């Protein structure tokens, strides 16, 4: 836990094709952490759209970001382009090296992996891309939230809220995190028990896998190129 009188600088990466809940779910939590400043950073300061068209405007370009205490990397289909964008990858690596905590949500883990930051690290990501973690030298852990040292990984989309609450507790204590949870009325009671591949009815799971088959294949091809660049042995399983 960090002393409450120490101001925290928190920043989220935003990009074209981000999944807005990977961004805005954690925003609901992180923006309420006491004595902290929260900002959005894009490759440029130009507005971007999430994968469903929601317009999002960065506060500044990554080149103008200060050293962050907390770096948040969300995912989404637009993550694919960033995995071979050296400018963004270098920025993430530099920020991560000086940050108190790094928070990855969903396929944000693949971006961090492409930056060479997951070697030997326990991590998780969205179920459709979970098998790709080994390409980055990560140790895949099939849990909703995974903590490895000063890193917090959330499995996907809504799991970002859980991960952000876990991070808030690490930063300011459990009472602060619980207060934020209460304000958000975060007490999920989903109408269906189909939120994981293990629980979803088989026809629903098969349909979901088909829906993301294209982007999953793209991600695997990119992951293989990244693995070669990082000198990581090919996955044989």
Characterise the protein shown here.
The protein is α/β, with parallel strands linked by helices and 237 residues long. 37% of the residues lie in helices and 17% in strands. The protein has a single domain (8-230), classed as Rossmann fold (3-Layer(aba) Sandwich), CATH 3.40.50.880. The chain is built from eight helices and eleven strands. Helix 1 (20-30) links the parallel strand 1 (8-13) and strand 2. Helix 1 packs parallel to helix 5 and helix 5 crosses helix 6 (174-183). The longest helix is centred in the C-terminal third of the chain and has 18 residues, at 213-230. The relative contact order is 0.15. The mean pLDDT is 96.
Structure summarized in a few sentences:
This protein is α/β, with parallel strands linked by helices. The protein has helices at 20-30, 79-82, 86-98, 108-114, 159-172, 174-183, 202-211, 213-230, and strands at 8-13, 36-42, 48-49, 55-56, 60-61, 70-73, 101-105, 122-123, 139-140, 145-148, 151-154.
